[in-house]
Amino acid sequence: MTEQTPSKNKPPRKSAPGLTSTGARKASAKSNRSRAREFALQALYQHLVGRNDATEIDHFTRDLAGFHKADAAHYDALLHGSIEQASDMDALILPLLDRKMEEISPVEHAVLWIGVYEFQNCLDVPWRVVLNECVELAKEFGGTDGHKYVNAVLNGLAPKLRAAEVEADRAKGNVR
Predict the structure, then answer these.
(1) CA 4, CA 41: separation in Å to the nearest integer?
(2) Residue from 140, 117, 148 nearest 29 by CA
(3) What's the CA gap between 95 and 31, in Å, rounded?
């Protein structure tokens, strides 16, 4: 039997408090609004994939386990607002894509809708929080590198949709 020498590879990642081993937030560490975003993502996915009616999706989603821990008003705004403003939001997103909208994963598409909706309509949520929350959603529910795509697109939209806020952060040296 040979003795193994320590490799130059990184040691296994230890999860930080409040995070899973993959870096996603544990359910217990999520705010009511974060939970609302998760339920809205699931509902918007149903809309994008199944073309289901928003009211039917809403009734179904409200019956899911854990919904009572979500901010129901924020969920309502995200679901119904995103569906109502879908074409306008897609028009903002499309110029930043490197492929056709139809080629974007429905999960990433729904996350982008949530981000754009919050940028435009939830001015009480700082733009960097919107960006971080959307990246977290994409990490947890999207494809392997979907969060990088979401990050790039929303970072591209932030200066347009939250110009004063982004500029103030740049002036403080908080943004590249």
Answers:
(1) 46
(2) 140
(3) 32
Residue 175: DSSP 8-state = -
This prediction's pTM: 0.81
| DSSP label of 9 | S
110 exposure class (CB count in 10 Å sphere: 0-12, 13-18, 19+): buried
Contact 116/157 with Cβ under 8 angstroms? yes
Classified as helix, coil or strand, 19 is strand
Tokens 């001015």 found at: 123
Give the span between the Cα atoms of 88 and 96, in whole angstroms: 14
pLDDT digits (tens, 9 = 90+) for 40-74: 999 999 999 998 888 999 989 988 999 899 999 99
Q: What are phi and psi of 67, to 5 degrees?
A: -60, -30
In the three-class reduction of DSSP (H, G, I as helix; E, B as strand; rest coil), residue 164 is classed as helix
